[in-house]
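User: I'm curious what two different proteins look like when written out as structure tokens. Can you demonstrate?

Assistant: Sure. I'll show them one after the other, since each token string lines up with its own sequence. Here's the first protein:
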Amino acid sequence: MYWYFLVMREHYADFGGRARRKEYWMFMLVNMCIISLLCIAGALSGCPWICMVYGLYVLLPCVAVSVRRLHDRGKSGWLLLVSLIPVAGVAYLLYLFSLDGQKKLNAWGANPKF
């Protein structure tokens, strides 16, 4: 939960800097668990819109942490647009997100691991 709250509180709309692998994947894991629980609860209670409201609330931090994860790899945040290519674009981004960040200083700052 630490990584989820770190993104939501301190980096809500922060598109600058770098995000390490652990920050990205832990945020996405907790976020997917919350969305799943809200969608199930919404379906059972007859309020399916509750899942959509939360999805809109976390859209900006999801994009921001993805951009910062790409920065950690030394790539531009605009590379997220490759996800518009069906299957191959998403697969390529998942590949990039799973790689370790650059160990040296890059255009977006120092390695956040150290």
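Here's a second, unrelated protein for contrast:
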Amino acid sequence: SSDLGAGVSDFKIGDRVWTYNAQWARPFGTAAEYVSLPARYVRLLPSNTSFEQGACLGIPAMTAYHATHIAGSLKGKTVYVPGATGRVGAYAVQFAKWRGARVIASTGGGEASAKIIRDLGADVVLDRKSANLAQQILKATDNRGVDHIVEVDLPGSMQFDESILAERGAIVSFGAASAPTVAVTQTGRRARNMSLHFIFIYMLDEAGFEATCAGVTQAAAEGALKHRIGATFPLAKLADAHHHAETTSGTGHIVVTM
């Protein structure tokens, strides 16, 4: 922090910090030399985490942490993460492992993407384009199904997710890329005490923000996180950074440096 407002006592000038919600419902975001934020949106950055890595800890890491936390303990459970090369998906793999889960992931990016996901800690990585993906996932769980799914496209995947979910399993949706609505089927295994969570990290209550930020910071401090940075640009090249973000997918965070 380079300056402190009246009444701020949790920080001192010169502290290394990371921030979140700098853009949400505010006139300015973090793509600037300076930004003024309420103290609750500012967190101390662990000493083992660089500023470039700290720039990744906001909404993507928080979304992944909350998505793997909201349905309770994951110790001894199996988590399925489709889209695991995405920013949220990559962190979801790591937080699930950190919290004691076995992780099954899938990718449509071939062996190169599969290696990236295995390096993040996934136990099983499957080809999302495979015609028998559901059968492979069920086989990998002794036909029990997965306990928890971190879903980036619920409308496009709901029918599939219902078919691989274990009894008392949870689906956590943080995106809807294909359509704005989703159909839920209440027959057979699909009605077995399934829980469905819709999360929007920007609008957690204060307790949710506190728990999520604490979890993200602790995992980073323990060295449990790898940060996939796809490219860095100086602030003067901000337009190029936006163009790169819009024209690449699955390569990691686009970071703007100052």
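A detail about the second structure: The chain has eight helices and ten strands.
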